[in-house]
Amino acid sequence: MSYKIAIFDTQNDAIQAVQALESAGFTPTELKVIAKNRDESRRIESETDVHADELEDLQETRAAYDEHGLGDPRIIAPVAVTPGLGMSGGFTSGMAFPGTPFIAAGVFLDDDTSTNSALSDLGVPGGDVDKCREAIAQGGIIVAADIGNESSDGGPDLSRGGEAEAAFRSCGAARIL
User: Fold this and answer.
1) Where in the numbering of this chain does the General stress protein 17M-like domain appear (predicted)?
2) Are 47 and 15 in contact (CB under 8 A)?
3) Is the CB of residue 141 less than 8 Å from the CB of residue 40?
4) Which of 27, 77, 75, 74 is CA-nearest to residue 48?
5) How many CB atoms lie within 10 A of CB 52?
6) Residue 72, Cβ neighbours under 10 Å: how many?
7) Contact yes or no for 142/32 (Cβ under 8 A)
8) In the chain, how many H helices and how many E strands?
9) How far apart are CA 71 and CA 101, in angstroms?
10) What sign does the CA torsion over 7, 9, 14, 17 have?
11) How far apart (Å, rounded) are the C-alpha atoms in residues 155 and 153?
12) How many whole angstroms separate alpha carbon 10 and alpha carbon 25?
């Protein structure tokens, strides 16, 4: 199975693309929509019959099953906050203890790794993962159409991949992969 993937800058364009793909014969189960968070995906889901995955949720789910040490968000380590301390990940909470100025609990994540793993788990091809991750981080929305296992013979592209690409182009895709 392979995907034709497009990156859209707006929710309107992504919604139009889903509708165009369905008009071209794609079923909701053949389409994937990936947005940055729930705020980004809520409208897409309400105006189409396609579920939109949120990358933030996928990262958390992927990391929970990942057994690669610090890539797991369940690992929360107390860290004494001192000037010059380089913390990776998010600051989650903190409290003062006698004898220490401040203790913080930090979640240590390799954001690129967990994001790449989450996108790969969704079926995004390895060569397109970085482009998709960067687009989503900048607020883009990914729409992917399952085109099966097909290849072009160099002639006019009348395949499902060609249909998906035509739909993406007509709806203002910022980039097609």
Assistant:
1) 4-52
2) yes
3) yes
4) 27
5) 25
6) 18
7) yes
8) 6, 8
9) 28
10) negative
11) 6
12) 23
- Tokens 């967990």 sit on residue: 114
**To which H or E segment does residue 2 belong?**
strand 2-8
CA distances from 164 to 11, 31, 51 (A): 18, 10, 18
Amino acid at 133: R
* Exposed/middle/buried for residue 95 (C-beta within 10 Å: 0-12, 13-18, 19+): exposed
End-to-end CA distance of the chain: 15
What tens digit of pLDDT does each residue of 52-67 get? 988 777 767 766 666 5
Q: What is the pLDDT of residues 26-85, one digit of tens each?
A: 999 999 999 988 888 899 999 998 999 887 777 677 666 665 554 444 444 444 443 344
Q: Give residue for tokens 């989503």.
A: 136
Q: Which two structure tokens, joined as six digits, stand for 122?
A: 């969704």
